[in-house]
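Please, structure for the following, as tokens.
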Amino acid sequence: MTRTTAKAEEIRAAGAEPAVADALDAGAVRDAVAAARPEAVVQHLTDLPTRFNPRKLKRAFAANDRLRAVGTPNLVTAATGAGARRFVAQTIAFVYAAEGGPVKSEEDPLYLEAPAPFDRSVAACETLERSVTGAEGLAGVVLRFGFWYGPGTGYARDGAIAEFVRKRRFPIAGGGEGVSSFVHVDDVVEATIAALTGAPPGIYNVVDDEPAPLREWLPAYADALGAPSPRRVPAWLVSLLGGRYLRYSATEQRGASNAKARRELGWSPRYPSWREGFREALG
């Protein structure tokens, strides 16, 4: 499903049958899903800018938050009405409350009181997850993904993150304690397939085996990219220039464990660590 006829042609050229509909238009979604008569629906909806200003994150996240909070329930309702049996939806694994240890499981609380504008994003994720896992008659699977890297992502050589790192505009703030969990796009595909083929309904963290603090992964990424070493700046400076959310992500963010996905989803990452994954993805 796509909103534009231009992208519909790209989908058709890739060998799939496109449907043109806006996920925020409940009627159009209902008609598109009914026409497809699906056994399963996969929601990989996103609406994020390819380039963004760190000082304007509220605007950058707004459309994506609406897709999660409004578009996904529209799609769930349409899937149920069309007789689908399974629904697989993506969300994010860096939504856990900034308390306790550095690595979280699916049972840990979400960070609903996160600094703005991320609080709205976390609330949208919660709405999405309730919609998917609470739908009657539908086996709902939610995949909480780590930060995607590999071809076509912000971490690719031509991506936005790579550009920031090359220009030394992605610093290590404070002690760089904020933890990130990563996942290669190939592993995103494999996890989605696993979720479609009989996995128990529920929520799963889909991340690699090595959650890592900013002070570890960012220099390694810069090195694999062939970029200069990242600067080190005081945490207060990041707050001043980019707001409280960027300081949180650099110094307080929690990572995620993939133990449940390995155990119950029948999935394991082809790229167990971002260390090897970065080097391979960046050549």
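The mean pLDDT is 96. The two ends are 32 Å apart (CA to CA).
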